[in-house]
Amino acid sequence: MNVTRGFTGRPRAHNTGLPPGQYDAGDDWPVLAAEVTPDLAPADWTFGIDGLVAEPRTWDWEQAHALPASAYEGDIHCVTSWSKFGVRFGGVSLDAFLDTVRPDATATHAVAYSHTGYTTNLPLADLTGGRAWIVWEYDGKPLPAEHGGPARLIVPHLYFWKSAKWIAGLRILDHDEPGFWEQNGYHARGNPWEEQRYSGD
Amino acid sequence: MTETFVPPTAFAVPGRIAVNNRAAATWQTATLTEIRRETPHAATFRFAVPQWTGHLPGQHLMLRLTAEDGYVAQRHYSIASPPGDAGHIELTLDHVEGGEVSGWFHTVARPGDSVEVRGPLSGFFAWPGDRPALLIGAGSGVVPLMSMLRHHRARALDVPLRLLVSARSPEELIYAREYGAETMLVFTRGAPHGVPVGRMAAVHVAPLLAEQPRGGWEAYVCGSNGFAEHASRLLVEAGQPVDRIRIERFG
Fold it and tell me: Which residues cross the membrane (chain A) (predicted)?
């Protein structure tokens, strides 16, 4: 351990909800996006799934809202080291979409992509079983554009760069393929509890 | 590796450079050698990092402080120094109110202290010096842009580079002595006598886009989220393509 002279850190209780190297952002919700925030109306938003699936499909705003509502209430963790506790997102479980398109038995991974062209890769297992959502509400209100509104992916058990803003679709694959930040040096999976921040961690 | 999936969308901003994964994953000891005051709230911290593999202007690093009980605090910071400052890097840090890392730097740190760093990180905001660069920054958002300007000067590059800097007042202007003819300053709260006070606006951005260099500008925007939103909108309204705008925000 490489102790820094005179550094004590802020006062802290035993907070088991905080993954290693993270701090509690409290009421802040920093905005981190490398691209221009798009001007995307709900009427122009679509979400599609294609690739290795039995029935590729695209949903528009109304069709997506017709699926059974599902909410996430819990914590989120950003690789830049802030975490945010007890957030509430409303939308639809990704399972509802995937059950419709039926991924092939050979499918192992997905690339999520946004209406801005951002991409991020995920193992299919991280997107199924009630672990991922398409959401359009934050704290009971429409999701703000700078946080990915009208709709974004959330995969809260992974670092938040995996939760693609302005989600446009998933391409289902039988191999892993690095997305935008993964090509820029970030970890392929991004599990905050194992501190998988950068490629090589 | 198979060919990377390109989404069927119009705006994708490609990465700039590949990142050295080994350097990104390895913690190194950085020894503080010098502290230079920039403004009442910002100072530059110079470190000796003998194993530093080098960086490109615009890249950042992760810095880690460790308390005696094993508690660690990690933060991303943009690198202020240009490449070619062999074995040394410089960071310019604002003293953030209640900030546990910036607080340590501004009230405890002294030359001889050591911290840990890993990097350089991210190939997205990097500027290798190859394309005309239109740089827009506010507050400590000028830090990665100054690395680009210093690189441009040190190498005497002839690729066009222009800098728009927004600061609250001349007293809060980081690197005040280093700006030259390539830079336009905008003051939002207080300005020298005869200089207008106000927010960055179309009048500042439009002339730069009217005199497009060959190949067009690659725009780099860095600052708070509010500033980044504002500046990137000005760029788009002035005709800069969204896929030629790179943004680094701090929340």
Answer: none
- Whether residue B120 is preceded by a cis peptide bond, meaning omega within 30 degrees of 0, is yes
Confidence of residue A10 (pLDDT cuts 50, 70, 90): confident
Asked whether the CA dihedral B182, B187, B192, B193 is positive or negative, the reply is: positive
Which residues, in sequence order, are CB contacts of A79 under 8 Å at separation 6+?
A: A159, A160, A161, A186, A190, A192, A197
Candidates B108, B124, B229; nearest CB to A7:
B108
Query: Residue B165, SS3?
Result: strand
Q: Which of B241, B199, B196, B201 is nearest to B219 (CA)?
A: B241
B157 within 8 A of B213, measured Cβ to Cβ: no
| Assembly ipTM | 0.86
Residue window 112-151, chain A: list those with CB within 8 Å of chain B. 113-119, 146
Q: How far apart are CA A9 and CA A3, in angstroms?
A: 12
More confident residue, B111 or A26: B111
CA angle A7, A27, A16 (to 5 degrees): 60
